[in-house]
Amino acid sequence: LCWNEAPLPAVFPPVRLEINDSEGHPSSSLQTLKGTSKWATSLENLLEDPEGVKRFREFLKKEFSEENVLFWLACEEFKKTQGKKQMQEKAKEIYMTFLSSKASSQVNVEGQSRLNDTILETPHPLMFQKLQDQIFNLMKYDSYSRFLKSDIFLNHKKSEEQEENSPEAQTAAKRASRIYNT
User: With a threshold of 0.85, does the pTM exceed it?
Assistant: First the structure.
């Protein structure tokens, strides 16, 4: 057996090129999507876009379940809270607004009864995480799919498409094309 008859070992892993944007963040096709196209890829993308949150809230309000997204947003904000006193105040506010049996916008989650004054006195950034995850999953597997079929979403998508296809948008695109292709 000659040395050149043996198969070569796969020593070299496949090369993966990563293209970064001007700020050094990895570029991806998802980053080029915007508006309704990006919202339709995941609930996470929808919740990252203020306009998406606004439209989703509008939809949930019609379904009498806006408290779910409001609770999720309050928990996200709570995680960023600095200082024990501020955390105590926000934790109590979240509890009284969304979790207490007398809450004005009560969410339906398991385990809310385990939250008590002791826990509220010693808050930590992730204290609502399990409850927030329950609400996220409820929205993801229930409300979100209906939202993508709703008039609110479809009308917004239609207006986006009309805007993109408008003569003004096409003229701007042609100008940009001439600038970059010269």
Answer: no
